[in-house]
UniProtKB/TrEMBL annotation:
The gene is nhaA_2. This is Na(+)/H(+) antiporter NhaA. It catalyses: Na(+)(in) + 2 H(+)(out) = Na(+)(out) + 2 H(+)(in). Belongs to the NhaA Na(+)/H(+) (TC 2.A.33) antiporter family. HAMAP family: NhaA (MF_01844).
Amino acid sequence: MTWIRNAQVSAAILLVAAVVGLVVANTPLGPALEALKGWHPTPFGGVDLSAAHWVTDGLLAVFFLVAAIELRYELTQGELADRRRALVPAIAAVGGVAAPALVFVALVPGDLAAGWPIPTATDIAFALGVLAICGRRLPVAVRALLLALAVIDDLIAIALIAILFTSSLQAWALAAAGAMVVVVWALGRAYRSRRGSWPLRIAIVAACLALWWLVLQSGVHATIAGVAAGLVLAPAPAESARHRLEPFVNGIVLPLFAFVAASVAIPQVPLGELSPVFLAIAVALPLGKLVGITAAGWLAQVALRTPRAERLSLGDLVTVALLGGIGFTVALLMNELAHRRTEELLVDGTLGVLVGSLVAIVLGGTVAAVRSARLAPVDAAARSAADADEDRRRTDGE
């Protein structure tokens, strides 16, 4: 299963699954697919999710667990271990949320401004997938920045959903989820001192499942459970989980997620009948992210006095910013929540997200490919070998 761990292979599978989902949704099979996505299996344990939500709220939490484990490694031992460098993606993420929101508000009348959160989201899976395919020779720091920025961006998006669109927040479940995070942390520490203990492994899995259930019951987006567990798990069980889950995530979770998320029927609406919401989202995603992330990231490096030798170049920041404009699934979720009472705006918002994300994919992928092609193949080979050695070292440290 070594091949499925390859970033380029997994990214290609993800993008193919997305294309297939979009195509199928716009064929005569579309209504049947939509019915399947809306099918509700028999509820159990207080969980009543549609088939689509089992993918986006359930399986995707596993992806966020793996992504958070990788982010924690970068923050503690990797490219972002220095505090000043770790603050750069956080500040860039804030800029990448604020600028698209301002662009959206500037392009719509006041009565439509409630949709401002839609273009603030970055789709971490698709952004990393495009970078893996088009930017194979780019410095490791570029991927680390994009990963950290996208995870922080998603956390902001989840917070916005909880604050703006959650009508029935369950405080007891949220408090219990906080307590369960502490349990996951404690079990991880115990695992470190008793490495290889199967009872502890089972206990950690059970605690993570309980954490997911509690977050789901709280009304907050359930994928935050994966982020929380990945950030607090001790290195030994975290790396063990990452190594074992990576093939499952790359081969099943992400392709299923991409297929479900992309299976959107493109509305047949004349261009002249589209509301300002369409244009605002289509512009705010690529342009807002480009301006916000680039400016905030550059200013952060200057303000934090990042040594010149460690700074990302303007070209690298632009590459990350363009890829950050791939809003797609999270933006579609925001659109559904913001416009659920107005069918016309929901249709226009969907088109805006698809067009804006496509523009970001084309521009970001092109810039990444051009910059990657300028790097010497021997340097790329050396980086690949170093990455492989690092991965083996992390796996051996389980």
